[in-house]
Amino acid sequence: MTAKPVTKGKIKIKGEIKVFSKKAKMLVLMLTMLMVLSVFIGCSSQPSGQSAPQEKPKEEVKAEEPKGEVKKPIEISWGSSSAGGGYYYATGVLAPIVSEKYDYINVTNIATGASADNVKRILLGELDFGMAHGSNAWEGANGVGQFKGLETDNIRIVSYYMPGPHYFVTLTKNKGINSLKDLEGKTIAMGQPGSGAQYNSDVIIDTLGYKVKREYLQFSDAGRALADGQLEAVGGTGIPVGAISELSETQGVKIIPFTDEEMGKLLAAHSFYYDDKIPAGAYKGIMEPVRVPFVPFFIIAHKDVPDYVVEDVLTTIYDPEVYKKLGDGYGQWKFTRPGLDIMKNSGVKIHPAALKFFEDNVNKYNFDDYGNEGWVDKNK
What we know:
- The chain is α/β, with parallel strands linked by helices.
- It contains twelve helices and twelve strands.
- The radius of gyration is 36 Å and the shape is globular.
- The termini are far apart.
């Protein structure tokens, strides 16, 4: 038979008439109402005249970025020196203060071969921070000598630490040793292998052309050997050096001065040294200023140390109360000051967070008050 026109409650399918049951009619009605309702809600959520935007794939939706840099917990390896060396004592005073002040930082004082070793290990990515002589830092940044072939761009300067006089010291009772030339044929402790003291001792003796018997010892061992008569002199960089301070109190020491000729020859060969004098009283029994070559000391860091870590370390050091505590804990800290001019002339890149810290805080801190109490008269 011929199909009839579609009427309410019926659907035309292949020319046949199908009649909905009561339940089917209700289901169709409910679905229709849901569709109308969803269209109404979707349209009402948009401003008049605007179409609804297409939904983005879930993978393109990004969480809101947190404000400021998140300070994740971090272990800081700070290279110092051997036991008895100045860097070891200095880092031992600083490390617990920083760790206590900031929950996310834990600073470990790593005993090393000192300056040159610290530079090498920062270039290799084995240390985060360290102390170093300007001479070693410059050579590391330029791939010279023992640092040839290493990743020279890894090193950054964080702060000037102190002036670094290099000197040779003997016991007061050694009457026959009054000049560097008198050391010819004598046995000298040049410093621990890999240290700045060792580097400077070797460079100076080699440049001046004196023939000596060289021993490479930790400062504590060198001090005992000098006291026992197994050595005639010890090379040291920076003041005070713990082992030499002890000898000045128990045995009596004298610092050997450089002549005009010796100083001129050294400075002509190595531009990172400068001519200056260790003041009287730097060690007990030193009664007159002594002319020796100087090299600046720096706090250095790996370039990948986060900016906020560098900023927090510097904020700690230059906080007036902490600065005093550091100086009371170990005398070398009393020399510490920004020294931005020295840093810029070092030939080594400055960590950007350090540069920003010193430039931004010129008015906050009176930096002229820092570094003026380093030289203490031990004769008083």
